[in-house]
Amino acid sequence: MEPIVQYKEIHKSFGDTHVLKGINLDIRPTEKIAIIGPSGSGKTTIIRLLMTLEEPTDGDIYVAGENLWKMDVKGKKKTANEKHLRSVRKDIGMVFQHFNLFPHKTILDNCVTPLVQVKKMKKDEAVDLSKQMLDRVGLSDKYEAYPSNLSGGQKQRVAMARALVMKPKIMLFDEVTSALDPELVGEVLQVIRDLAEHDEMAMILVTHEMDFALEIADRVLFLDDGVIAESGTADEVINKSDNPRLQEFLKRFRKEEV
Amino acid sequence: MFSSGVNILEYLSQGAWTTISIFLVSTLLAFIMAFVAGLSRLVKNPLIRGFTTIYVEIFRGTSLIVQLFWLYYAVPMLFNINLGSNWWVGVIAIALNYGAYMSEVVRSSILSIDKGQTEAGIALNLSRFQRMRYIILPQALRLMLPEFGNYSIQILKGTALVSLIGLTDILYYGDIYRSSNLSEGPMAYMMVLIMYFIIALPLIWLSKKGEKISRRGVAS
């Protein structure tokens, strides 16, 4: 199967800090990938590059065969403009650590606005689809509520519904439970679990929920010091790897959990 | 004493329409300038940004009364540009001056909206324009309201300067009244103050209202 996303020799620096040092990664269309690793290892940066929130310093990213950050102008490679970026990223959706809901819009309008503006969908169709999706994440009684009236877990479920109505082929999850109170983490993970089981899309999760990542991921990447240090099934990475940095990371992690 | 006060008010009211009309039109133009300049300072094009920055800094950095005299006396002579009546000169000077100040309110309000809002907009594939129009501006506008209220009160008070280029506003009639009734000078100026205050009352009320709306709009 052709990969839906390809990273080729991707580097990213912020000023003098070299965060990603040559990432190579192919993602299959329905693959669920979990990225784990110490903080500051560049996990979040990997998916932010794909969402076009950051520009790579070097290297290429392909989405469905299209070069994301470069476009052809009369046979020459040029930095992508807004139009090119919009056409390539249309199949990518993202959920953020801090939800980033639109506070001036109701829950329903948070979902309806992008459908009407970006997908040019008719208002009533957009409303129907949005309600369906909000029902799916368990918020059918909150259509007219504003984000400020919701709990963190509810906000994050709205954020997922909002990303899902756009029917992305690739969904990115950026530490989506890190800002939640511990008792609200479960309801958000349940939605992701449901997506992983029933939806065809590719998913990339950057997460600290180690057990959850291992449970749903087809492949686990251990990112360390800007490179993919280990890659394989959950079992291979967690139980069979003898990478000392990974062992240390897991040990520290288990300690924190207890 | 009381009847003289009422008489003076009646006399001053001849200038009320000049004051109010200058206030209304220059405030409207100042708002437009504020948005044009405020947004221009946020675009990528360095030429537009540089040009706007020069405008803003010049008009913020010099006094309104000097600008008024420039537009009224100097510009017509130097560039052979006639801005029409002195009413228009007054309106344009005030609009340019306060537009420059208020453009900073527009700019800083837009910049103060959380970066996550823009990122969510990008993740939903909204265009740059759509993000500004549907996500950033509606939130930024609420932040601007209280400041806009304050500035509109300041513009009203600023209109008193136009009497210096021969416009017959409230202050102008106050001066005339005093010069023909010297003993009533203090009373005349007292009434001028009261008249400005009465006109300002609805503005004060409006800016309080703006603050309330603004407070409601924050927190996600």
From TrEMBL, chain B:
<keyword id="KW-0472">Membrane</keyword>
<keyword id="KW-0921">Nickel transport</keyword>
<dbReference type="InterPro" id="IPR014342">
    <property type="entry name" value="Ectoine_EhuC"/>
</dbReference>
<feature type="transmembrane region" description="Helical">
    <location>
        <begin position="54"/>
        <end position="75"/>
    </location>
</feature>
<feature type="transmembrane region" description="Helical">
    <location>
        <begin position="87"/>
        <end position="106"/>
    </location>
</feature>
<dbReference type="GO" id="GO:0022857">
    <property type="term" value="F:transmembrane transporter activity"/>
</dbReference>
<dbReference type="InterPro" id="IPR043429">
    <property type="entry name" value="ArtM/GltK/GlnP/TcyL/YhdX-like"/>
</dbReference>
<keyword id="KW-0029">Amino-acid transport</keyword>
<keyword id="KW-1133">Transmembrane helix</keyword>
<dbReference type="GO" id="GO:0006865">
    <property type="term" value="P:amino acid transport"/>
</dbReference>
<dbReference type="GO" id="GO:0015675">
    <property type="term" value="P:nickel cation transport"/>
</dbReference>
<comment type="similarity">
    <text>Belongs to the binding-protein-dependent transport system permease family.</text>
</comment>
<feature type="transmembrane region" description="Helical">
    <location>
        <begin position="151"/>
        <end position="174"/>
    </location>
</feature>
<protein>
    <submittedName>
        <fullName>Ectoine/hydroxyectoine ABC transporter permease subunit EhuC</fullName>
    </submittedName>
</protein>
<keyword id="KW-0406">Ion transport</keyword>
<dbReference type="InterPro" id="IPR000515">
    <property type="entry name" value="MetI-like"/>
</dbReference>
<feature type="domain" description="ABC transmembrane type-1">
    <location>
        <begin position="16"/>
        <end position="205"/>
    </location>
</feature>
<keyword id="KW-0813">Transport</keyword>
<keyword id="KW-0533">Nickel</keyword>
<keyword id="KW-0812">Transmembrane</keyword>
<feature type="transmembrane region" description="Helical">
    <location>
        <begin position="186"/>
        <end position="206"/>
    </location>
</feature>
<dbReference type="InterPro" id="IPR035906">
    <property type="entry name" value="MetI-like_sf"/>
</dbReference>
<keyword id="KW-1003">Cell membrane</keyword>
<dbReference type="GO" id="GO:0043190">
    <property type="term" value="C:ATP-binding cassette (ABC) transporter complex"/>
</dbReference>
<dbReference type="InterPro" id="IPR010065">
    <property type="entry name" value="AA_ABC_transptr_permease_3TM"/>
</dbReference>
<dbReference type="Pfam" id="PF00528">
    <property type="entry name" value="BPD_transp_1"/>
</dbReference>
<feature type="transmembrane region" description="Helical">
    <location>
        <begin position="20"/>
        <end position="42"/>
    </location>
</feature>
